[in-house]
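Hi, here's the filled form for the chain we discussed.

Project: internal
Contact: R.S.
Residues: 621
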Amino acid sequence: MNTSSTPELPVIRRLSEQVVNRIAAGEVIERPAAALKELVENALDSGARRIGIRLDRGGIDRIEVTDDGCGMSPDDLCLAVERHCTSKLRDETLVRISTLGFRGEALPSIGAAARLTVMSRQHGTDSAWSIRVEGGAVSQPEPCAGPAGTRVLVEDLFFATPARRKFLKSPRVESSHAENVVRRLALSAPHVAFRLEFDQRVVLDLPAQDRAARVAAILEAGQADGLLAVEGQRGDLKLSGYICAPSVHRATANGQMLLVNGRPVVDPVLRTAVRVAYRNVMEHGRHAVVALSLEIPPEQVDVNVHPAKTELRYADSAAVRALVIGALGRALGAGAGVAGVRPDLLQSRGPSAARIWYPPERGNDAADLSTRMAAPMPPAPQADPDLPPGFAESSLPLAALPAARKAVPQAVLEHADTTAAMAHPLGAAVAQVLGTYILSQTADGALVLVDQHAAHERLTHEILRAQYLGGEIRAQRLLLPEVVDLPARQVAVLLPFAPALARLGIEIEPFGGTAVLVRALPALLGKENPASMLRDLAEELEADELSTPAQADALDSRMDAIIARMACHGSVRAGRRLTHEEMNALLRDMERTPRAGTCSHGRPTWLKLEKADLERMFGRR
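And the returned structure, exactly as it came back:
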C-alpha cells in the first residue's frame, strides 16, 4: 500500500500500432456481417460485375468474397492493408463522396482481428499476387495463380481479440445478419450478379437485372400482387423505388431497404418517415416492406457520422421526411385492386407432394374418357328453396353444389353487365359467402375475396376524413336526444373535447353525474348506437396522453384514429346480406377510394387467388 501523500502519476505512453488497429477494429468490425459489408463494398467500388460470397458458420470461421473488378498490383496490396490508405477520395474535403467506402479502415481492421488473405490480379497482367495479415502482422506480397479481379479470405474472425469473439451470436443469427447485408448491397447494384452461399448451400443467386426485378427478388414480396412504384421530387431531392401494399407487412423493419445516393443505410429519419406514411393504413406494431432510393446533393448529407457508414446527417431532415411521406402517401392513395395479398396458406407448403395424375382431355385416352363420362348419372336431387347456410339469397353458391349449379350461376352470367364488371380490378361479384365475404371473379380468371365490413369501413373512413378536412361533416340532429351512461373517467375525458367532437358531427353535453346527452351524430353513420361509439371514442382519447383540449395540433393528429373508430361503427356489418347490385357497387367504390386496400385498422380488405394458386392448392402444379 502506498502511504505517500503524493499520488502516483499515471504515465502517458504511445500505444503500439498493433493495439491501435485492434481498438479501431472494434468500431468497424462488430460482427461477421460488418466485415462482409466492407468487403462487398470494396468489390462494388472496384467495378465488379459478378460477386461471389461464401460463409462458413455465419462467417465466424470463414468469409470469402470473390469479384471480377479491376484488381490490384503488389504495391496496391501493401497500401490496401495499411490504415487510412484509400483510392476513393479525390480530395480531403469529405464532401463529394461517390463511393461506398472511403475511410481506408476495412482491410486493416479485419487483418488486426482475423487471419486475412487478399489475392488480386489486374486485367491484362500475367500473374496474381497475394498478401497475408494475421492479427495485424503483415507479410510481403507473393505471386500466385488467380483470375482477374480480387479474392479476399477471412478466417478465424476475432481470434486476436477473444473477448469480442465470445459476444458473437449463434451461426444461424450471424448468417441472418450477413444475408441482410448482402440483400441491401445487391439492391444498390442491380447491374451486378450476386451469389451467396452459407456452408456450401446457395442462399441467393441473382443475375444482373433491372431495378424492378431486383427489388422483387430482394423483398421476396411474392405474397404481394404487384409492387407500387414511388416517385417524388422536392427541390434537389429525388425519391424513387417500390413499396408493398400496406396489407403486406412484417414483424421487424428488416424488410425496409433504404438507399441514399446508392449507399445502403439504416437511417432513423427515413424509417420514421416510412412509419408515418403507413401509420393510418397498417396494423399497429407491424412494419412496411419498401425499397426506396433517395438522391440528394452530396453537400447536403454527411455520411461520415459512424465508421459503419449506415447513419447519416442531413442539412434539412424536415425536407427529407416531407418528401418521403408525401411520395409514399400518393402511392398508397390508390384504390383497391392495384396491389393485393394472397393468403398465407400459399406461402409455405413444405416438400411438394407427388403430382396427382388426371385423365387427359385429348389424345388416345379421350375416347375411353368420353365413354366413361357418358355413363348414366343418378338424377340430381331437387334444389332446396333455401340456399346453404352462409350464402346470401341473391348470391351464387359455389359450383360444387350440384343442385344450384345449373340454376343460379347461369342466371348471373347472363347479366348484361357481368362481362364488363369482370374487366375491373376487383372483378364481378359472384357470391356472398358466410354473410361476410364477397366472392368475385376477374377477367383473367382470378378469384377475389372481399371482407365487406372491412371494405365499407375504409370507404366510410375516407368520406368522413374528406368531410372533416373540408369542414363540412354533416350532423343529423336526433328527434329525441339520447342519454348515455358512461364510467365517470370516460365522461371526464369526453366533455373537454366537446367542441372538437362537434366538428365531427357529434354534439354532446353534460347531463349530470356519469351521463352524457347526445343531441346529434354524423349523418353518414345512420342509426348508430351512440353509447357504443362514445365509449370507443373515450378510449381512443384516453389512450393518447398528448391529446388535450389545449393542444389542438395534437388532437388534429389523432383525428384520423378517431374517425377510424367512427367509421367502424358506421359500416356494413358482417352477416348483412347484400344484393348483387350492392356487392358490385361496393367493389367499384373500393377501386375508386384511396387506401381501400386495408381497413381503418390496417387489415386487408381483399385477397386474390390466381389460377396458378388454385392449381397449387389442388396439387395440379
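Let me know if anything looks off before we file it.
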